[in-house]
Each structure stands twice: as structure tokens, then as C-alpha cells.
Amino acid sequence: MPTQFADPKLRAIQNLLARDKVRLRNMQTGELLHMSGRGTTTDVNWAWIGFLHQAETLRIRANLSGSDWPFVAVHRDLLEWKVKLAHV
After folding, report:
1. Which domain of life does the protein's organism represent (predicted)?
2. DSSP 49-85
């Protein structure tokens, strides 16, 4: 459900902040990191989304714990654009 803003300035600020967000994608399988930070999903609605520095923090934590980190940061618009085309 889209969020509606009574104040257009607030909407503009939200759009400005959201422009640099990324999703984490496993390039071998095409799956996305789940929003919980554990596991994967193919549905963009359940995928993790955040800023590049947050993605880097997740990668560092995974490496420190000895976990494999197959994810690459992909700009959110690239994934959401493909999803919209698939539904047309």
C-alpha cells in the first residue's frame, strides 16, 4: 500500500533519502537477502533494503562470524524496474 503524505515537502525529503538505497543480491542464484537479514527470498517485497554503509556493516559482521557472504549491493531501482516489467 503506498504511503500518502499530507505535506509534499515531507514526501520530497523521503524520496531524496530513498534514492541511494540498495538491495543485496546473490548473483549466482539471483535471490535477495531477506529483510530479516537471514535467509533469502525471490520476492522484492520481502527483501532487505538499506544504504550502502548498512550493507557493508552486514558484510563485515558476516565475515567476522565466519559466514559466507555471496551478496552484492544492487541499486533498488534496477531490481524494482525489472519486477514492474515482468508484471506488464
Report:
1. Bacteria
2. -B-HHHHHHHHHHHHHTT----EEEEEHHHHHHHHHH
CA distance 39 to 47: 10
The C-alpha cell at 73 is 549491493
- Grouping H, G, I as helix, E, B as strand and the rest as coil, residue 8 is helix
What is each CA distance from 44 to 11, 31, 64, 68, 81, in whole angstroms? 22, 9, 27, 22, 11
pLDDT given at position 29: 93
Q: Is 22 helix (H, G, I), strand (E, B) or coil?
A: strand
- pLDDT, one tens digit per residue, over 1-54 is 455 667 888 777 777 777 789 999 999 999 999 999 889 999 988 999 999 999
Neighbouring C-alpha atoms within 13 Å toward the C-beta of 6: 0
- CB-CB contact of 71 with 24 (8 Å): yes
